[in-house]
Write a structure and sequence with these properties.
Helix content is 43%, strand content 15%. It is built from eleven helices and nine strands. It has an eight-stranded parallel β-barrel with strand order 1-2-3-4-5-6-7-9, surrounded by eight helices. The radius of gyration is 19 Å and the shape is globular.
């Protein structure tokens, strides 16, 4: 059951492995190690990566590889996917990969599954080939992975080794009510992408809770909300840091993606009126400011949504400023 007290709510990180201007994916992975270690020290529960493809500014395409890299660089925090885009993969391969990860790092691996391609249609076709329409089989593929993890599969001709018999939590990810229905029907925890798709968030989590069917995996509904967070020592500093996030989203809206840009003093010459409005709509659940401002807004958010866990994603150009944001946000959850 969710609590309105921040001190009782877990907080986690979604890392998109965003590549900053002047850096390479290799640099990005080193930054992720630094950030994950800070997150672990600050009490974050999970550190997840999201699968994306054909994006010059996002380096998390080989998601399972990154999860293993970060799990090896940390010791207690749960590491996982937010998520693996299941239509891009055969369920057996996912079960084997995450079975391998869970065997290497017992009790620390999460498997979040999404039904979107995580890319554009042309790239999705290149990934899937003849299986281009496999997103229609998402519910069945989730069941296949569950079966591969089950000890009941031990006598089948096709088995996931390693993977079989391991306790690997499966999450359903989504940005619409369709995913909420599936998570509810299967009795699985539900992670909503409110950091970029806020419009259906409240309807989706309400539908999930009302239709939740208890399962062996979960007795009560569990909602994780991913939100944008840019915390700094002052509102003014946070607002300036946030211009890197705004430029990142402009690239999404316009289709003209660039590496994560340094902050600027003004966005006036960077976005037009349409882009500015679209960015504001996508960032409906963005928490930007100094500690006092974010504290009040997070309290209001939790009171309104009764979420069980909050996951942050943070697009800040400077790695030290991003570490500071993680530290400031975590401090809000330790206050009595």
């Amino acid at each position: 059951m969710a609590s309105n007290k921040l001190s009782e709510i877990p907080y986690s990180v979604l890392d998109l492995a965003t590549v900053a201007e002047g850096q390479t994916p290799g640099d990005t992975f080193k930054r992720s190690v630094e950030l994950a270690r800070v997150a672990e020290q600050e009490g974050y529960r999970r550190y997840w990566f999201a699968e994306h493809h054909n994006m010059v500014n996002v380096a998390s395409s080989a998601t399972a590889v990154l999860i293993g890299h970060i799990a090896g660089a940390t010791s207690t925090m749960r590491i996982g996917s937010g998520g693996i885009m299941l239509p891009n993969h055969a369920p057996l391969i996912v079960a084997e990969q995450f079975g391998t990860l869970a065997s290497l790092y017992p009790g620390r691996i999460d498997l979040g599954l999404g039904r979107a391609p995580g890319t554009d249609q042309l790239t999705a076709l290149a990934i899937r080939g003849e299986n281009f329409h496999s997103h229609h089989h998402f519910p069945e593929d989730v069941e296949r992975i569950q079966r591969f993890f089950s000890t009941d599969n031990a006598h089948e001709k096709v088995r996931a080794i390693p993977g079989e018999g391991l306790d690997i939590p499966i999450w359903i990810l989504g940005s619409s009510t369709d995913s909420a229905r599936l998570a509810a029907a299967k009795g699985l925890p539900y992670a909503f992408a409110s950091h970029f798709a806020p419009a259906q968030f409240l309807d989706a989590i309400d539908l999930y809770r009302r239709n939740f069917q208890p399962s062996e995996a979960l007795k009560e509904p569990y909602v994780l909300a991913c939100v944008n967070v840019i915390a700094a020592d002052s509102d003014e500093e946070a607002n300036r840091l946030a211009t890197s996030l705004y430029q990142f989203i402009v690239g999404v809206v316009s289709g003209k993606r660039r590496l994560l840009q340094p902050p600027v003093d003004s966005m006036d010459t960077i976005w037009n009126e349409y882009e500015a409005q679209a960015v504001r709509q996508m960032l409906g659940y963005a928490f930007i400011g100094g500690p006092e401002k974010i504290r009040q807004r997070i309290h209001d958010f939790v009171a309104r949504t009764a979420v069980d866990e909050i996951m942050t994603t943070t697009h800040i150009y400077d790695v030290e400023a991003r570490k500071r944001s993680l530290q400031l946000f975590a401090s809000l959850f330790r206050e009595v």
